[in-house]
Amino acid sequence: DVKVTQSSRYLVKRTGEKVFLECVQDMDHENMFWYRQDPGLGLRLIYFSYDVKMKEKGDIPEGYSVSREKKERFSLILESASTNQTSMYLCASSFRSGTGTHGYTFGSGTRLTVV
Amino acid sequence: RKEVEQDPGPFNVPEGATVAFNCTYSNSASQSFFWYRQDCRKEPKLLMSVYSSGNEDGRFTAQLNRASQYISLLIRDSKLSDSATYLCVVNPFRHQAGTALIFGKGTTLSVSS
Hints:
The complex is a heterodimer.
Chain A: E1 4-6, E2 10-13, E3 19-21, E4 23-25, E5 31-38, E6 42-49, E7 56-57, E8 64-70, E9 73-78, E10 87-94, E11 105-106, E12 110-114
Parallel strand pairs in A: 2-12
Antiparallel strand pairs in A: 1-4, 3-9, 5-6, 5-10, 6-7, 8-9, 10-11, 10-12
Chain B: E1 4-6, E2 11-14, E3 19-25, E4 32-38, E5 45-50, E6 55-57, E7 60-65, E8 70-75, E9 84-91, E10 102-103, E11 107-112
Parallel strand pairs in B: 2-11
Antiparallel strand pairs in B: 1-3, 3-8, 4-5, 4-9, 6-7, 7-8, 9-10, 9-11
């Protein structure tokens, strides 16, 4: 079974802190993604990566950065946490989609609260 | 027009009922389609891929109509355990190396006894 592991299930951070969310997958997937999910807004793409050291901005990259130094690990960084970044953060991975027949496998999510 | 649109519901149905969810997508170049299920406070999980010929998995049937840019999910003989949010998901295939899936906001189903 594909496994995507997010480092924390629940996290509480203070405004202005630098926050690292880690995601590791064990199936040699090329693609990795970070989404946030908020009530009424659905899943919104923050960043994704289709190869080591490669990254692409999603729909809402402001206030975030990412790092992919190894194929299995994709980190999301909140440079200076703000209360409007309180959310559920979901990491996902997939095989490279050519004609695109592959869905994602998600991690169990990190529920981040910024106070 | 939003990229992926779903009726948010909620759909409240009794056990045993048949219920159908619809979804429309705006990008006619979209290549592949999925339905995901998400339980409360959990991550989404892949329910079905949607093939152009339509496909069935037990009580679940998914259909695709490319001409109308429309995807459907039919659930027969609803169970209490089917209560969840169902996400319609589209792969817009923007470039070869990798494309992020686009998620609808979901349709909530509540099955009662």
